[in-house]
TrEMBL record:
It comes from Methylobacterium oxalidis. Keywords: DNA-binding, Transcription, Transcription regulation. The keyword Hydrolase does not apply. The keyword Transcription applies. The lineage of its organism: Bacteria, Pseudomonadati, Pseudomonadota, Alphaproteobacteria, Hyphomicrobiales. Residues 18-88 form the HTH gntR-type domain. This is Transcriptional regulator. PANTHER family: TRANSCRIPTIONAL REGULATOR, GNTR FAMILY, TRANSCRIPTIONAL REGULATORY PROTEIN. Gene3D superfamilies: GntR ligand-binding domain-like, Winged helix-like DNA-binding domain superfamily/Winged helix DNA-binding domain. CDD domains: WHTH_GntR. SUPFAM superfamilies: GntR ligand-binding domain-like, Winged helix' DNA-binding domain.
């Protein structure tokens, strides 16, 4: 099934400064990052004319931006059908989460030794406004905080290459987390596991933090394996 004229979050007119191609690329990529690409069976189709109008540019920089995004594996061109946001198979998603677990676990180890006390305090405050009793009524807010939390751990590891390597993985991991956080009692489990991770990081227990973060991510892989009905191939 195709989704025609998919709304593109976070698009705005591009202006001067960087090249139009680069600006279009940044805006389109930001929009894709904000999409819930695994919520439902509908393929997300990207319409060049519609995007060009949203950005206030011609089709040329949009086409060039799409070419860059296709090279990064975020979009794909299907002859006679158009451009689509890439959705991974179930097996591919599990492999991506496994790679993410390795990266984020290492980042957590590094963060426990490199991050400042203030940075780790800020990390801990991300969930201060949430309670187990009130979580069910704030799942959208919690999903956003959850994503920011995992991005922050990667960043606090202090390894720029790790940040860059995880960026494209995160397009899919983010979408999986946003959907799965509403399933199978995961919000309560997520809050407890986050609290343990934060405690380990703030105690500078690097090895424990790494193990907790890794197992937290691998738990998501197990959840996808058990509960998601995406195609296997």
């Amino acid at each position: 099934m195709l989704q025609a004229h998919t709304p593109m979050p976070n698009l705005a007119f591009v202006g001067g400064g960087a090249t139009l191609r680069h600006q279009a690329y940044e805006m389109i990529k930001r929009s894709i990052l904000a999409m819930d690409i695994y919520n439902g069976s509908t393929e997300i189709r990207l319409e060049e004319n519609h995007i060009a109008r949203e950005l206030g540019v011609s089709r040329t920089p949009v086409r060039e931006a799409m070419s860059l995004l296709e090279q990064e594996g975020l979009v794909r061109s299907i002859p006679r059908r158009g451009l689509f946001v890439v959705r991974k198979t179930k097996r591919e998603l599990i492999e991506m989460i496994t790679v993410w677990a390795a990266l984020e676990g290492t980042a957590a180890y590094l963060a426990a030794t490199r991050a400042t006390d203030a940075e780790l305090a800020d990390l801990g405050e991300m969930f201060d406004s949430f309670t187990l009793s009130g979580l069910a009524n704030r799942l959208d807010d919690y999903a956003d905080a959850n994503i920011a939390f995992h991005q922050a751990i990667i960043r606090l590891g202090g390894c720029q290459l790790m940040v860059e390597m995880s960026a494209n993985l995160f397009v899919h991991v983010r979408a999986i987390r946003s959907t799965s956080i509403r399933q199978d009692g995961r919000p309560d489990r997520s809050m407890r596991e986050h609290a343990a991770i934060i405690a380990a990081l703030q105690a500078r227990a690097a090895e424990r933090a790494a193990i907790l973060v890794r197992d937290h991510a691998l738990g998501l892989a197990s959840h996808v394996e058990a509960h998601w009905s995406l195609p296997e191939t």
